[in-house]
# Entry
Amino acid sequence: MLRVLCCVNKGYLDDIEVKKVLSFEASMHAHLKDKHAALLAKLEKDRAMDKDAEAQLAAAIADFKKTGTY
# Structure
């Protein structure tokens, strides 16, 4: 849930067509699980997002958006 809220609050969905948001979300989750499992584990464990985790998540989302696989 934190991942999706971060995307919305930080404007990562601003350039995504509304009809593609659900696909974006599902693909982003898969990407994060595959490429950034340690970050997801930290977020799940801490149930909070510190500045370092926020920066890592922002970089991971930007990396995912470059793939265009949504």
Summary: Residues 10 and 64 are 15 Å apart (CA to CA). The radius of gyration is 11 Å. The chain has a mean pLDDT of 87.
